[in-house]
Amino acid sequence: MHFICCIKQVPDTSKVKIDPETNTLIRSGVESIANPYDMVALEAALTLKDTCGGKLTVLSMGPPQAEQVLREAISCGADEAILLSDRAFAGADTLATSYALTRAIEKLAQKTPVDIVCCGKQAIDGDTAQVGPGIATRLGYTQFTYVTEIKEIDTVNARITVKRKVEGGSEIIRGPLPCVLTVELELAKPRRASLPRLIHSLKSEIGVWNAEAIHGDNQKLGLKGSPTWVKKIFSPPFKEGGPRFDARENPRQAVEDCLKTLLADETFAFHLLKQWGQ
Amino acid sequence: MQENYDVAIVGAGPAGISAACVLAGKGIKTIVVERGEYPGAKNISGGVLYGHDLAAIIPDFVEKKCPVERNIIESRLWFLSKSGGYSLSFRDRAFYEKQAFNAFTVGRARFDRWFAEQARAKGALVVCSTVVTDLLRDSNNRVIGVTTDRPEGDLKARVVVLADGINSPLAAKTGFRPEPKPSHIALAVKEVIELPEEIINERFNTETGHGVTIEIIGEITQGMDGIAVIYTNKNSLSVCIGANLSDFMESKVKPYEMLEEFKQHPLVAPLIKDGQAKEYMAHWIAEGGYEAIPQLCGDGYLIAGDSGMLFNALHREGSNMAMTSGRFAAETIAEALDKGDFSRKTLAGYVARLQNSYVIKDLKKYRRFNAFRLQHHELFTTLPRLGSFAAQQMLTVDGVPKKEKQKAICKKFRKEISWGSLIRLLWTGWRSVK
User: Fold this and answer.
1) Best to test chain B binding among A15, A191, A192, A195 (most B CBs inside 10 Å)
2) Out of B2, B37, B126, whose CB is closest to A196?
């Protein structure tokens, strides 16, 4: 089987600060990392490859230094890596990004048909969760979003069964391959590369494809192909937490105090009664 | 899938990368194992490097865009009391003309990355985010590689260079270097304070690209044997203060409080005014000197840099010794590879090289300096106080005849420190550095 995993290099947003005056991101001195959701997608793809056999190709779009995340993927077990890098791709929003990635996947599929594309649920820098579904729609593949568990892969009938998060719970669904999975963090814990693989990744060639290589329509790529405009960035006001009860010394007292506070709030008592009523 | 290497180097700091550059330059199959996410990620040295030692490894380091912050053209020494102090400085045109880059400041996170790139370009492999947990040995107890914390993490090599710094759990674990004594270590805390380039130029009276180092002793270390430094970077200042670990243990002084107080000192505060603290860090400095140097080689291994306690505490020189010891290690290994003999006897050529160079010569010269400072805490208490008192008295214009002032100063001196002990101090001080 042929698996593809899409990985984005992102600034470590846990370290990015927002300039309170200009409302822009202060990115200087912030390290770039592989999007954590994508690393879970990679782990999912590696696990699938381990069970079904086949080939795993990793794909990224970004500046030349984004090859770092592809090397990381190779160190974990990916077989081949392609970086889409071209000035023509710059400034892409989710529409243009999913277009470029789709063209690349189509090109890869010409050589070896693709069965499963794994993506992170979203990137931690944009949080849109649109690229995965965008790829699935463009390719016409079955789409499984917010996947928390891969239940079964049936290679004979080319079907996959997954558990996914939905509003208020989860559902288990089955659908035909080829498909796109976008995954949640709880699906898997990314593995630590073995030393020989790590060394291998440092010596590996990373294929770089430009706009021409993927036969991209320039009107659909980069800034030109991006209808999204960022109008404003702002920091939402900090939400104050509720009261805290120190349970280290006297847990009983802390619970009593907590209940007292909760019950003093009429809406809480109302909700509680409503719950009991059901 | 296991590959064999000629040389495995533990640590991608100045010592390890220097060795890697020289080895890879000779076409020797070299791998460097670094625990940080990238070389320099774990590095927090004060930040002065020396052109002479770097040029021996990368002669065209300036052309190769070594990330220099400022070329040091002036050195200042301060002897401070709580409220003031003496300042002595030396600047020379030579330091930006003939001897440019004699000493220069760098940000270690950037420099180490650049330096590792040079080693990579020469063909060395640099593996990051990997911790060497132990050494591999054969039945004769010869070192034949390293074990790392990764799956399938063994790495075979004909020689291992331990260049993993002062705080090396590996050295302690393998027993190659006994855990350093508290009195052989200084604990330093450092803050990087951001300021616009022009403001730094103005405050330090320099041109763009030129910089100043200030080395400071006195009451600022609160009676402990210690030193503070201020280094100019391009658009920041490194403000660092530290003291001997055994003194910290005794005095219970909190390092960060000491740093805060130091920043308020009347000579320091105007230099860092309106600056933004960007980084804060703490590190160890190998101050044990000559007496604390462990055995630097054995069957199949060599120890370089801070890990071998190669640090000149008086002149604050460590990175140069690290680089040069790394280079010597590499040259010795190249010879050993030619011979096909990695026994301690052959690798002892490394120690001979160090002994014939300034590295061991300087450390030997100052071998009593560490003990001297630890035995004379008056250097950090009574003396700066009395010195400042004397100057302040003589410079105060208040109608009191100078003769009377002189008497008062002499009286105070006699009361607090006997002439005999002052002479002894000077004599032992001279002996410790002569």
Assistant:
1) A195
2) B2
User: A202–B125: do the CB atoms touch at under 8 Å?
Assistant: yes
Domain count, chain A: 2
Long-range contacts of A137-142 (CB under 8 A, 24+ apart): A137/A98, A138/A98, A138/A99, A138/A102, A139/A102, A139/A105, A139/A106, A139/A178, A139/A180, A141/A117, A141/A178, A141/A179, A141/A180, A142/A175, A142/A176, A142/A177, A142/A178, A142/A179, A142/A180
Residue B355: other Cβ atoms inside 10 A: 11
- Alpha-carbon distance of B201 to B120, in angstroms, equals 36
Give the whole-angstrom CA distance, residue B381 versus residue B225.
10
Contact yes or no for A39/A29 (Cβ under 8 A): no
Q: Do A137 and A254 share a domain, yes or no?
A: no
- Decide: B37 and B131 in contact? Cβ < 8 Å: no
Q: Is B151 in Cβ contact with A194 (below 8 Å)?
A: yes
Based on the fold, state whether residues A261 and A169 are members of the same structural domain: no
Is there a domain that residue A126 lies in? yes
A194 near B CB under 8 A: yes
Same domain, A157 and A271: no
**Chain B neighbors of A192, CB-CB under 8 A:** 150-151
pLDDT tens, residue by residue, A185-238:
999 999 999 999 999 999 999 999 999 999 989 999 998 999 988 787 777 777
What pLDDT tens digit does each residue of chain B (434 aa) get?
Answer: 467 999 999 999 999 999 999 999 999 999 999 999 889 887 665 588 999 999 999 999 999 999 999 999 999 999 999 999 999 999 999 999 888 899 999 988 889 999 999 999 999 999 999 999 999 999 999 999 999 999 999 999 999 999 998 888 888 788 888 888 888 889 999 999 999 999 999 999 999 999 999 999 999 999 899 999 999 999 999 999 999 999 999 999 999 999 999 999 999 999 999 999 988 888 888 888 888 888 999 999 999 998 888 988 777 788 899 999 999 999 999 999 999 999 999 999 999 999 999 999 999 888 888 888 888 888 888 889 999 999 999 999 999 999 999 999 989 888 888 888 888 888 888 888 87
B150 and A199 within 8 Å at the Cβ level: the answer is: no
Say if the Cβ atoms of B150 and A31 lie within 8 Å.
no
A180 with A258, same domain: the answer is no
Q: Are residues A168 and A202 in the same domain?
A: yes
User: For residues B31 and B16, is the Cβ–Cβ distance under 8 A?
Assistant: no
Inside any domain, residue A228: no
- Which member of A194, A202, A203 has the closest CB to residue B152? A194
Note down the domain range covering A191: 2-220
Q: Which of B37, B126, B150 sits opposite A195 (nearest CB)?
A: B150
Q: Domain of A63: which CATH number?
A: 3.40.50.620
What's the complex ipTM?
0.84
Domain assignment present for residue A225? The answer is no
Residue A229 lies in a domain: no
Give ∠ CA B61-B66-B67 in degrees, rounded to 5.
160
Looking at the structure, tell me whether residues A8 and A129 fall in a common domain.
Answer: yes
Task: Select from A31, A195, A203 the Cβ nearest to the Cβ of B153.
Answer: A195
Domain match, A86 and A178 both: yes
Residues A183 and A47 in one domain: yes
Q: Enter the pTM of the model.
A: 0.86
